[in-house]
Amino acid sequence: MKKIVLSLVLIGLIIIGTISYLSSKETEPTKLVLLKEKLSNKITPSVDHTKFAILQKKFNSPQEITEACISCHTERAKEVMQSNHWNWESPEYIKGRGVVYLGKKNAINNFCIGVEGNEKSCAKCHIGFGMTDKIFSFTDPRNVDCLVCHDNTETYAKAAEMGGAPVTTLNFNNIAQHVGEPKRSNCGVCHFFGGGGNNVKHGDLEKSMFDPSRDVDVHMNSEGTNLQCVDCHKTEKHVITGEIYSMASMNRNRSTCESCHSDNPHQDAILNKHTLKVACQTCHIPVYAKVNETNTDWDWSAAGKLKNGEPFEVDDKEGNHTYLSIKGSFKWGKNLEPEYIWFNGTAEHYLLGDTVSDPSKPLVLNTLNGSYPDKESKIIPVKIHRAIQPFDPLNKMLIQPKLFADNKGEGAFWKDFDWQTASAVGMKDANLPFSGKVSFIKTEMYWPINHMVSSKENTVKCTECHSRENSRLANLTDFYMPARDYSPFIDTVGTGILIFSLLGIFIHGTIRIISKRKLRKRA
Amino acid sequence: MQKKVYIYRSFERFWHWMQAIIIFFLAMTGFEIHGSISFFGYQNAVKYHNIAAYAFIILIIFAIFWHFSTGEWRQYLPTARNLKAQINYYLLGIFSNAPHPTRKTVLSKLNPLQKLVYLGLKILVIPTMVISGLLYMFYRYPQNSSIVGMNIGSIKVIALFHTAGAFLLLAFIIVHLYLITTGTTVTSNLKAMITGYEELETEETTDIKKINSESIAEKVKPEVTNE
To answer: Which residue from B36, B97, B155 is facing A519, i.e. has the nearest CB?
Structure first.
């Protein structure tokens, strides 16, 4: 009787356990449901800009449109003029340097190197008009380009090499009457094409993100949640959240996954524990450059070759440049697995004019700080872009060459193809010394991968990191990770004991069988 | 005279077999987490290992209670008496059909070698596994005040202790599985642990059902045959 009762209790417990285990799988994560519900509520604008008389008049210059905007939105231009998008710099504290105004003016990048002296061309992506040379009025609110961000017709376009002015043939009345919150198309025209072409810089931000499928980006999927950039890069008074660590140094104002998803987004407690040390992106962005190739290597030292005295280009079968006389040779990659680093939100930068202590090693232009013991650090995925850049071997500094000019003979490399003169003119523009010698050194730039978030079915699997061979985190050796790491001593001795035991059993057992047979025969 | 004696009580058998199953399961899942094998899939292995760990701890709590309430813990008190004879038996005597140097009775179920090894498991290996396992489960990375709990900088030391213990347990299971064939007959020990009854050489009619815990405490002394 007692046994029957006990076994019934046991069976009952097993049934209850199984049911509760299986049924827990069927419940939806409510946080996600609530988020989806919240995001499906689209805001209807409070005004209809087509009804404003001031937007019906003929605009003779882009500045006149801005005047019209400011006549109602009287304080907004002031906010814009405080922003990084306008100033192209921001005060940043950098360890060992103090507070530095850091931005496109003094940071060197791995692509077209720097803005200095090339403003007229680079200003195509400045939210203003009239940046035709170094003397640009950052204080005139009429130069603010409202439409580049707020045009909702997707027809506004800035002209090439015009200091930020728009193409003159546009229907400005139509555009000005259809303005609203920035869309992916507004942000994308600059941020998808940085570095002089689609997906040259980021790797996770490129033209497929105008209209991405679920496989490309689960958030911006135009048939799904269809999030716009500003849905995550929340903006108050034209201060946009999100830092770009090619030019930012401080852990502030970041746009994070956690702001919507919290830092305990999983149902599985062990997965949630990962969030202490592993950024969401690390598992949820298994590959980047999912649709179009991203530039991975840029060799400036190859630039300047001419055919019959003329610059030329070589393209691969996908249409990406593999060689340009003006820029050098390139390598491209698609569906790339990110590299992984520790990152605590702070960065250090190589700034124009800094001396390079060891030119034999690749120079990291933006060092992202972090390590395992650092409490703020998490593992993040990065695209590491590698380049070979002009370098002054005597002054030991990277060269900011003059690249762009309207005419030949001004010393610009893109017209005259001479490193010596381009370097001399460029460094003079930047008020920096130049020895007259040009060599080349390797440089690296780190680009955190934050977009192209995959659906939950396609996240990085446990064993892609937790494995002896080919672990994605093979390069991060400053901590113990189960399955990847082990003590060779303990494993060798342990395996030895096991083998020794089995062998001992085998020998002992064999002797037993043999001796038993002998004894039996004797009997 | 040979007599069928009730030697392993039902809880003892339940505890023994549950422990065997759980340790085997923990080894399977554990060595998958360690990266040595792959069977359940990594995420499942982690999940199952944790569930099995809780089951093991609950079982251990019951077993500790049982050991003390019945006085059976005294079975594991180590003794040097007959230890050499037991080792000699396994190394030599067993091949010439020599009799077991230690007589198995209800009050002294274990030979001196078993006492030593089982005690080592009980007070060294299993506590190491439980403590390092709990630390493995509940440690927290150093965090700014947001996490209340143990702040351990690295799990390396914890993990290495846990791995070393796992190898020892596995080696024990392998050897143990072999040594159960060295009873009076090849299967007599196994049958005893399943049914509870074993044919034992006995003078008095000791039956475990008739002995209360206090009398075990008095009577548990290694009995030696002089053959």
So the answer is: B97
How many folded domains does chain B comprise? 1
Nearest CA in chain B to A468: B35
Contact B33 A495 (CB under 8 A): no
Task: Kindly determine whether residue B42 and residue A466, on different chains, have CB atoms separated by under 8 Å.
Answer: yes
* Contact criterion met (CB < 8 Å) for B163 and A268: no
What residues in A contact B90, CB-CB < 8 Å? Answer: 508
Closest CB to B164 among A463, A494, A516: A494
CA distance B26 to A54: 76
- Residue A257: left if φ>0, alpha if ψ -120 to 50, beta else—which one? alpha
* CATH number for position B126: 1.20.950.20
**Number of C-beta neighbours around residue B175 at 10 A:** 18
> Does any CB of chain B come closer than 8 Å to the CB of residue A491?
yes
**A520 at the B interface (CB within 8 A)?**
no
pLDDT at B202: 67
Mind listing the pLDDT tens digit for each residue in A8-63?
Answer: 778 888 887 777 776 655 555 577 888 888 888 777 888 999 999 999 999 999 99
Instruction: Assess if residue B217 is contained within a domain.
Output: no
Question: Regarding predicted confidence, which is higher, A162 or A507?
Answer: A507
Q: Is the pLDDT of residue A68 over 80?
A: yes
Compare CB distances from B35 to A467, A479, A511 and report the shortest one's residue. A467
- Residue B67's nearest CA partner among B113, B9, B22 is B9
> Closest by alpha carbon to A162, among A103, A121, A113?
A121
Sign of the four-CA dihedral A149, A150, A155, A157:
negative
* B contacts of A491 (beta carbons < 8 Å): 36, 163
**Beta-carbon count within 10 A of A145 CB:** 26
Q: What's the rounded Cα separation, in Å, for the pair A213 and A210?
A: 10
Q: Which two tokens stand for residue A35?
A: 């988020």
Average pLDDT over residues A374-382: 94
Nearest to B35 among A484, A487, A504 (CB): A484
Q: What local confidence, expressed as pLDDT, does residue A317 receive?
A: 93
Mean pLDDT by 10 residues, chain B (227 residues): 86 95 96 95 95 95 95 91 90 88 86 93 96 88 55 84 96 95 90 91 60 51 45
Is residue B198 a part of any domain in this protein? no
Instruction: Please determine, for residue A468, whether its predicted confidence score (pLDDT) is greater than 50.
Output: yes
Q: Which residues constitute the domain of residue B129?
A: 8-173
B185 occurs within a structural domain: no
Share of chain A above pLDDT 90, in %: 76
Distance from CA of B147 to the nearest CA of A (A): 10
Q: Rounded to whole angstroms, how far apart are CA atoms A286 and A266? A: 18
Residue A354 has pLDDT above 70, yes or no: yes
Is B115 inside a domain boundary? yes
